[in-house]
Design brief:
Number of domains: 3
Helix content: under 10%
Strand content: 35-45%
Structural class: mainly beta
Distance between the termini: 48 Å
Largest sheet: 5 strands, antiparallel
Order of helices and strands: HEEEEEEEEEHEEEEEEEEEEEEEEEE
Number of helices: 2
Shape: rod-shaped
Number of strands: 25
Radius of gyration: 32 Å
Length: about 375
């Protein structure tokens, strides 16, 4: 370390009036030098072009200090240059940072102290991007989750994750390349994006940030579309209570979603009927409304209902089974719309169900699992 300081003294002496370090050892009159210089890169979303670098150091508390001088260079073979003067114990250098920095104290005569330690912006501290980004469509929200490989690659270097989003064109199957925004940051491998419009597709991507601000590459972008939903809705059997035995996902122009109404209407998506053996059945009603059983086993939650299946729909009544899920394909304004129902409770006279509805025409997302690339 002593040899390094002598080298810095020789370089910096060209730019200063006097160096307190004469190479002969500590001097009681020597100007106090800054110490403990650290750096933090400021992520921009592009791992190769951070927004800048933030330097911090410890002020020695010498009353003769008028300012601190920041020196930097772009490579280990380049000459040091005087980057800036500041009176604080930190400095924000905007744009792509130089490779190395050190700081000295300066008095009113322009004389400088010994150099602080030198920091090197070390790209080896960059962590990998997270794997396995998944999402769950919610009502005006999207729940994101990903693998912990970025953190576990080196837990001592891990700091946090950044979450980005942009608009998604469902018809063109493209994430917008110009509208990316920062949704937020988190130290866990999940993030809830809220305040998102239902029926408005968005793309999401995640990066890993190291303790010195290095940003990883992004995950493969994933798109998702929030959709309307409701829990614990009671729909009666037609033979029990006619006025609450019908259901429609959306009445266009009215703003009504998930309407429970009379089962003798002809504009329903379905009504519930009790057969002679006591079983309850979903009966599709209006033209263009068809239903398909979602899988062959029960599902644990409404969010387990994935993308609407491509086929298997029928206008034939289907038996209602507790814990099972059903996906509905309906016609609205000439476009296909998709809804889903999970039966949570079954009794002779009524059913309690959860429902979800995708208001984006032609969009089969109820909880998307497919990934899309830019």
């Amino acid at each position: 370390m002593r040899n390094t300081l002598v080298v810095f003294a020789a370089v910096v002496a060209v730019a200063a009036c006097t160096r307190y370090d004469d190479g002969l050892g500590p001097d009681p009159d020597e100007l106090g030098a800054p110490s403990d210089l650290t750096y933090e890169l400021l992520p921009s979303g592009d791992p190769d072009f951070p927004d800048g670098i933030l330097l911090r150091w410890t002020d020695p508390g010498d009353s003769r200090i008028e300012s601190f001088v920041v020196y930097s260079r772009g490579s280990t073979s380049a000459s040091w240059s005087r980057r800036a003067n500041t009176t604080s114990g930190s400095f924000h250098d905007t744009g792509v940072p130089h490779l190395q920095y050190f700081v000295v104290s300066e008095d009113e005569f322009g004389s400088e102290s010994r150099a602080s330690n030198t920091i090197t912006v070390d790209e080896r501290n960059r962590l990998p991007s997270p794997n396995g980004l998944t999402s769950i469509s919610l009502d005006q929200a999207v729940q994101l989750a990903w693998a912990n490989n970025g953190r576990l690659a080196d837990p001592t270097l891990f700091w946090y994750y950044r979450v980005y989003s942009t608009t998604y064109d469902l018809d063109a199957n493209l994430c917008s390349s110009v509208n990316w925004v920062l949704e937020g940051s988190t130290v866990s491998e999940d993030f809830l994006v809220t305040g998102v419009a239902n029926g408005a597709p968005r793309c999401f991507a995640i990066s890993t940030i190291s303790i010195d601000g290095h940003e990883s590459a992004w995950t493969t972008p994933r798109h998702d579309t929030p959709r309307y939903d409701a829990r614990n809705v009671v729909v009666s059997a037609l033979q029990s209570t006619l006025s609450t035995s019908g259901f429609r996902f959306e009445y266009p122009g009215s703003g009504s979603l998930g309407t429970v109404t009379a089962g003798d209407r002809t504009d329903l998506d379905f009504r519930i009927e009790r057969h002679s053996d006591g079983t309850l059945w979903f009966h599709p009603v209006r033209a263009g409304t068809r239903v398909a059983l979602y899988g062959n086993s029960t599902v644990t939650d409404l969010t387990s209902i994935d993308i609407a299946p491509l086929g298997g729909y029928s206008a034939v009544p289907i038996e209602i089974l507790p814990g099972f899920a059903y996906v509905w394909e309906t016609q609205l304004g000439g476009a296909l719309q998709y809804g889903a129902v999970r039966v949570t409770h079954w009794q002779r006279d009524y059913v309690i169900l959860d429902w979800a509805y995708q208001s984006d025409p032609g969009n089969p997302e109820l909880k998307r699992t497919r990934t899309r690339v830019l």
